[in-house]
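Changelog-adjacent note: as of this version, every example in the card shows the full chain rather than a window. The one below runs 378 residues end to end.
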Amino acid sequence: MTPLVLLALFALFIVVLLSKTVRIVPQARAGIVERFGKYKTSLPAGLNILVPFIDKVRYMIDLREQVVSFPPQPVITEDNLVVSIDTVIYFQVTDPVAATYEIANYIQAVEQLTMTTLRNIVGGMDLEETLTSRDAINSRLRGVLDEATGKWGIRVNRVELKGIDPPPSIKDSMEKQMRADRDKRAAILTAEGQRQSAILTAEGAKQSAILNAEGDRESQILRAQAEREAQILRAQGEGQAIQTVFQAIHDGQPDQSLLAYQYLQMMPKIAEGDANKVWVIPSEITKALEGLGSSIHEVAGIPRDATPRTRVDMGSTEPLLPASQDPELASTSKAVEDAIAEARNAANPGKSIPGEAGTADSGTADPGISDPGAPTGQ
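Full-length structure tokens:
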């Protein structure tokens, strides 16, 4: 049994010896080796051989970048307002020996240094500047920390202000100020919108009035032109009708019987007037009609057995333009006026028109016409 015990003890000793001799360091780590309580060397990552029972790995330092978030710290601003500021520090150990032997707890040291530096920086700013100058605070704080922690073997990469919380009363005042500012901007925008709307409405009304006035002017011009052309066409039509009737009278060669018949047809129309109180019928209607027909022929300038020596040229039956625009129309109108004047000059000026003698006023009758109530010669 004794050899077996000895063998077991020897195996155990070998295992312990190997554990004390061989040491594996993970990647991005550094081991601090002490020999008899004094710094001996730093173990790199990988397999390392130590002197058993003499060398000892005292600390294992993490060389990766570390992130530490510190709790909110009360800071007084220049305008005597207390704000709570949360900070986040990004740092990395560059010298494991200095981080181990130059300072006891570098995490706590960085926290206290951050708090004191932050109070110093923010103490020279008012609240509004503090809230709007985070980049400046981060830059100044990082510079101070990096300079102070350099001898500790620590490099501060970034410093961030995670939160700046003013007192509740200040928050309420800031919200009211922000709300008032937004209400002001909303009122300004509303007023500008109403102004632009009024300007556009006025410009639209102006353009509408101008267009309406131009439309009215154009319509009045067109109506005046249409009325003028209508009057010209009516005048041309009346002139054409007069020429046609005048030519028909010359071509038809009217006699006394026709004129007497026309007079008889006109007598009822003469009697239709309300002002005609007395209607006189000639006693000898045959002689009266013969004399009347003779008078009409003589007054009209139409001889009993004569025909017009010269036929009047009627011209085109199309509507004519005014005389000022058509020279042929002017000459034709002049010819018609000359013919009518000659016919009137040829008439006997001593005789009256039968139409005027056929109407009696206040019981007076023409000498050739007798009262229908009086006895005739027959």
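Structural remarks: Strands lie at 22-25, 29-35, 38-43, 46-49, 55-62, 66-76, 82-93, 154-165.
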